[in-house]
Structures are given as structure tokens and as C-alpha cells.
Amino acid sequence: MSDLINIQQKLLPDVLAVMQKRYQILRSIYFAEPVGRRTLAGMLGMSERVLRGEVEFLKAQGLIDIASSGMTVTKEGLIVFRDLEGIMNQLSGLHSAENRLAELLQIKKCLVVQGDSDITPWVREEMGRVAVKQLDLALVEKRNVVAVMGGSTMATFADTMPSDFAKGRELLFVPGRGGIGEDLDNQANTICDRIATKTGTKHRVLYVPEQLGEEAYQSLMKEPAIQEGLRLVQSANAIVHGIGDALTMAKRRHTSDEVIEKITRLSAVGEAFGYYFNEQGEVVHKVSTFGLQFEDLAKIPHIIVVAGGTSKAKAIKSYMKSAPENTILVTDEGAANMLLNGSKAHLK
């Protein structure tokens, strides 16, 4: 396939340019549907006049439908879109970027989706879909315990989970941490419940505050029910989690002014599992949390991290300096460009 693409680039470059343009239109309609022509033109940076001709072509081919509510992708259009993904990623340089990024971060694998989730929110949905596929490939055992962390990215991951995900496997989804006091929709408990309900699988809850004072923390750790819940979480053979911006996460957790001053003074840029990392990957602060600890990751065979957007690049880089080598990172062009080039330039 790559040889054919190289030949086409030399002999028929215009054909490939048209194919890329129509793929981008189809992709944008799929993630924003139903979407109007004016909105789509703005998303793509294309004039309505030029877009009108392309949309009419896609409709004539049966790839999209046009209604008063907006444009949507047909079943045939979705098949074409999925079939084109690999080719388009190769043409855009994404495959090469993925390999370079994995080498830079010294982890098992990187997968980069087109776009920047800071600018285009539906890019996060695409990252979620890719993460679901990676989890599906990882769960080769008959019985699996999957730990899922909280956060808005993980909530999107849950939304992209297909109803037939179990495929005959016995799956138990467990929250990687407690979450009382956090936004309900983004709590790990809630996300596990949504995934289990959607896929017809099982889940457990960990109804304890995400963070407590040291005395209360040590007291609760002695409770048999808490210990049993933590043992179950620690037995996970796969985990899916995000990476947070340090200050954003601290404020979201209603952290004291004293601690915020500390992590600011010590230049924390990233956060995961209650650990705050500086740009060198050093832990500059840790909060006592109920659930998986960073050191527990060494025992988990399959680790999938989902984080994207230009604004997350420093957080991703800081965390990956300590991440296990078997980590798979699902990110977007926005973060990948900053990590590889230190700029927003397009990946090449």
C-alpha cells in the first residue's frame, strides 16, 4: 500500500490532495453531526462556495445525508471513512510521528489522532475511540479487571465504548480511585457504572473521598471493606487513565492555598494518581488518595493513557519520564507537535 501511495504522490498528486480534502470533510461531518454547511465551512477554514461542491459530491456518492437539521454520515460513508483512516494517517505523517514520539517518551506505543482537542472538542471523542480499540486488543484473557480513572477525558472514553465491547469476555470495571467531592459525571465510580451499563458487564464502586487528612486516611485504610475494595483495584490487569494539568487539577480538588503555592513554587506541570510532577518528571507533591498509587502501575500489564491538546504537552512529557515502559499513549496532533517540535507546526 505504501508503494502505491508513493507512486500516486509522484504521478497523481492532485488526486491525493482531493482525496485528503474529502476525507477531512467526511471526518468533520461525522464528529460534528448533524452539522450545517456554514458551521462546517468555519471548522475546515473553507469557503461555503467550495464546500458546497464537495458536499454535493459526497451526497451523490451516498456517503452523507443532508436534512434541515444538518448533514450526517451514512453507514456507507462511515465504512469509507474508517477504511481511509490508515491511508490518511500515512499521508499526513502521523505514523512516522507516532514512532518518533514513542521513542522520545521511551514507552511501548503512541497513537496520534488528527486535530487539537484544545481547539476542536470532538477530537477528544476520536482519542476515546482509539483508546477503546487499544483496550479491546489488550484484553485477551477470559476474565479481566479493568481500572478506570476519573476526569472529563475518561468520561468521553466511556461515551465511545460500544455496547458489544465484552465479546464473550468476563469484564469487571473498577474505579482507580475514590471520588466523593468531585464533579459527579467525572468521578471514576460514575464512569465505571456508565461503561458497565452500556456494555452489560459488571462494575464495583469505591465510595470514599478521593483525598483526606493523614489521620483520617490511616483510619479508613484499616476498614475491611476499604481494604477489600483496594485489593480488587490493585488486581487489575489493565488501566485507562488521563493526565492532568497540575494547577487545574489542584483547583478542581479544592486544594488549599498553601499547597497551590507549593506546587507553583516547585514548578509542577502535570498530575496523575495524586502525584504532581515538574518538567523533569520529579514528584514535587503528593496527596493521600484512596485507590491506585503510582507504584501500583508496575504490576499492571496493560496501561493506556489518554491525553491531548497543546496545553497538555508539558504535563504529558513530565508524567512520561516516570511512566512504565509498557505504557500506550493516545494523544492528538496538538500535543504531539509540541512534544516533537516545541511548536504548533503540522506534523511531518
TrEMBL record:
<keyword id="KW-0804">Transcription</keyword>
<dbReference type="Pfam" id="PF21715">
    <property type="entry name" value="CggR_N"/>
</dbReference>
<dbReference type="InterPro" id="IPR036390">
    <property type="entry name" value="WH_DNA-bd_sf"/>
</dbReference>
<dbReference type="InterPro" id="IPR036388">
    <property type="entry name" value="WH-like_DNA-bd_sf"/>
</dbReference>
<feature type="domain" description="CggR N-terminal DNA binding">
    <location>
        <begin position="18"/>
        <end position="88"/>
    </location>
</feature>
<keyword id="KW-0238">DNA-binding</keyword>
<dbReference type="InterPro" id="IPR051054">
    <property type="entry name" value="SorC_transcr_regulators"/>
</dbReference>
<dbReference type="InterPro" id="IPR048715">
    <property type="entry name" value="CggR_N"/>
</dbReference>
<feature type="domain" description="Sugar-binding">
    <location>
        <begin position="92"/>
        <end position="341"/>
    </location>
</feature>
<dbReference type="InterPro" id="IPR037171">
    <property type="entry name" value="NagB/RpiA_transferase-like"/>
</dbReference>
<dbReference type="GO" id="GO:0003677">
    <property type="term" value="F:DNA binding"/>
</dbReference>
<dbReference type="Pfam" id="PF04198">
    <property type="entry name" value="Sugar-bind"/>
</dbReference>
<dbReference type="InterPro" id="IPR007324">
    <property type="entry name" value="Sugar-bd_dom_put"/>
</dbReference>
<comment type="similarity">
    <text>Belongs to the SorC transcriptional regulatory family.</text>
</comment>
<keyword id="KW-0805">Transcription regulation</keyword>
<dbReference type="GO" id="GO:0030246">
    <property type="term" value="F:carbohydrate binding"/>
</dbReference>
<protein>
    <submittedName>
        <fullName>Putative transcriptional regulator CggR</fullName>
    </submittedName>
</protein>
